[in-house]
Amino acid sequence: MSAVADFAPEWLALREPADAEARADALLPPLLDRLAGVDRPVVRDLGCGTGSMVRWLAGRLPGPVRWVLHDRDPRLLALAAADLAADLGEVETRVGDLAGLGAAELEGTALVVASALLDLFTFEEMDALAAACVEAGCPALFALSVTGRVELDPADPLDGEYEAAFNAHQRRDGLLGPDAVAAAEEAFARRGARVLRAASPWRLDGRPALTAEWLRGWVGAAVEQRPDLADLGYLRRRLDACAAGGLRAVVHHTDLLALPGEGR
Fold first, then answer.
1. Are 126 and 183 in contact (CB under 8 A)?
2. S-S: 192 plus which of 54, 137, 162, 263, CB 3.0-4.6 Å?
3. How far lies 177's CA from each of 37, 67, 105, in Å?
4. Cis omega before residue 41 (within 30°)?
């Protein structure tokens, strides 16, 4: 992958409950139909972090599963494997670049999953992953891809400025950012896959610690993109409102399921 931030385990733990609530259950029935009859399916989690996506999915897949965890950070892989192995049994880990998987590596894989990952791919990397999945006949479930839209209540006159700057930051160095879902849908559909989408908004009401940490990252990226947005008092106003329980935040995401060979 062209540019990937390091993610602290503490941040991943803080966001996991909101992630679990946001992921789209509506995409599970067609996925389960596709996996019906597959004995001990191999499921690969790309960018697994500490295992949040596996913990969410494990109870929703019938029967035993062989899990293969991929991440570029060996520390996160070790944490995920240690936590998951006790409950899930067979768990393997792979350290490396997530964008380098080809059809040969995916042979025998029943499902590829990822969460909050696609925005970190370039178009070429996304296209290559779609090609590998389709060639291997492997469905893919991508959860929590950002759309670029944020709702904050009460509104602030500067909300739009920070949102636009953050989205521009997400697209730096050729990364897909908020365009990731559209790029993935096009890449899979062009190769004959059936592609389904479902909204998966992060609703941060009642989670002041998560909201505050998200705000710091969101505003920080916007300011990195546009330094003129620094020192305007925006972050302090928003953090004060959050601490007082007076800020509602919805961060919009989309989940995508690609089913090779089922296009119409």
1. yes
2. 263
3. 36, 28, 26
4. no
Cα angle 175, 52, 39; round to 5: 105
Q: State the pLDDT at residue 67.
A: 95
The contacts of residue 20 (CB under 8 Å, 6+ apart) are 52, 55, 56
DSSP line for 68-137: EEEES-HHHHHHHHHHHHHHHS-EEEEES-GGG--HHHHTT-SEEEEES-GGGSBHHHHHHHHHHHHHHT
The pLDDT assigned to 4 comes to 45
Average pLDDT over residues 232-246: 95
- Integer-rounded Cα Rg, in Å, for the chain is 19
Q: What are phi and psi of 42, to 5 degrees?
A: -90, 120
The pLDDT value given to residue 3: 41
H/E element holding 24? none
Q: Measured between alpha carbons, how far is 258 from 112 in angstroms, rounded to an integer?
A: 10
| Mean pLDDT (the chain, rounded) | 93
Percent of the chain with pLDDT over 90: 87
| 120 contacts 4 by C-beta, under 8 angstroms | yes
Q: What are phi and psi of 139, to 5 degrees?
A: -60, 160
Band (264; pLDDT cuts 50, 70, 90): low
According to DSSP, the β-strands at 111-115 and 66-71 are: unpaired
What kind and span of H or E run contains 151?
strand 140-153
pLDDT band at 144 (very low <50, low <70, confident <90, very high): very high
